[in-house]
Design a protein that fits this description.
This protein is α/β, with parallel strands linked by helices. The protein has 21 helices and 19 strands. α17 packs parallel to α18.
Amino acid sequence: MKKLAALALAAALLVTGCSSGGSDDQPEAGTLRVLAGSELADMQPVLDEAAKATGVKVKFTFTGTLEGTESLADGSLDGRYDAVWFSSNRYPAGIPDAAKRLGNQVKIMSSPVVLGLSQPVAQRLGWDAKPPTWGDIAVAAGKKEFTYGMTDPSASNSGFSALVGVASALAGSGTAIDAQQITAVTPQLTQFFSAQQLSAGSSGWLSDAFQRRATGQDPGQKVDGLINYESVLLSMNSSGKLPQPLKLIYPADGVVTADYPLTLLTSASQGARDAHQKLSDYLRTPAAQQRIMQVTQRRPVVPGVQLGQQFAPRDLVELPFPATQQAVDALLSAYFSKIRRPSRTLYVLDTSGSMEGDRIEALRSALAGLTGADTSLVGRYRQFRSREEVTMLPFNTAPGEPTTFTVPEQNPQAELAKLKDYAEGLKAGGGTAIYDSLERAYQVMEPLQAKDPDRFTSIVLMTDGQNENGSDLAGFKAAFGSLPPAMRQIPVFTVLFGEGSGDELTQVATMTGGKVFDARNVQLASVFQEIRGYQ
């Protein structure tokens, strides 16, 4: 799991061997049903070999830790899964109802979260010769001496680990950070995160976006580096797809490391327990540990296994992790409400006649959930945040009237209530002018961006059908090409719903540096929550 907080529970599965069944399938002899982080897809070659050696096949369903923790706590995994495999169990272990369902835990591999910088920037800062502290990095970030990308800590464990590591190091107490210390280091954390120019809901998409921007395939602003897993950064370097390799910076005061425990659930059957034992034993053999290093660029956890030359330094200082759920909540709350740069999002919302009935109701409910109506563990961290600017642009036969809401830092409830009332008042009717409305979105964005450019800015396009009115995709492409450079850097996250054209929405997302989200077989609300990790 490279996620500590979350992607929405994905329908996508990876199965070693060739199966593609879902988590609701009846358990099969010799098959271990595992709820896991999506980055573990890179373990497929190793698990294929494990299946041949042990007879144990792994059936993966992917999720984020927040979603997985919530499912653990409410018991919905019981009987449906045999094990969970996150990058760390630190978060679920802090929630009693989730922790009591965690059985035998076997660490398989490890990867610290570090900073990767372009070689010229690392040399200019002097960090290629002498490792800086997190405090040094924060000072340089505050002076805008470099920029970086990082995942959303409520959506990805690499981002959360980075947030924990920076906060713990800046507190300098040598013990797990608490709520009081978080308040004390908030000014330094704000300085540190002022240099973040790229956000993402997953480590994989973050590295892909960085690579596309570095090579000019993405119109988004280039950044100097990434905070991500060592394994991801090493894999990027070895891929040969970057203009030049990144210099990995290991802060002198320590890191937070993922240890990937393959964890049996207490509800698992005896057959699953036996399979878990066989698989764990195999994955911890010296040969398998060497293979994991080769395939995934993660470090071995078994003593005596020789570390590859790519891993330097070899001995790392491990920073303490928050000891209580209260401290975790305080850190995430401070990050979203005070520390990170605020966001600006424009929602282009299909309210055409085909949305009548359940579809418009799903849209109303999804938006209302983001105003605080969803009080689940995931919902608390994915709602509209203080200082955020939200614009709604409904459309049918033509673009509607845009309405902008700005959520204040103090007492945001009144503005959120207005947003909720607006969402619940959406009505369906008319045709479908997708591309006229998307062009209008950029027109609305331009003065907002010019007035306050220091925000994470994005457009979300949600439609359930084909374009019927106004300009077509070719017309939008022409219009997009004539936009000012700053406007072309605004990504469009497209939501495929109903009979919407997957091919066209993919082209829009790719051209603008965004991403496609598929809501055809999952709840629209969960997809809207997932998108929040990219805003």
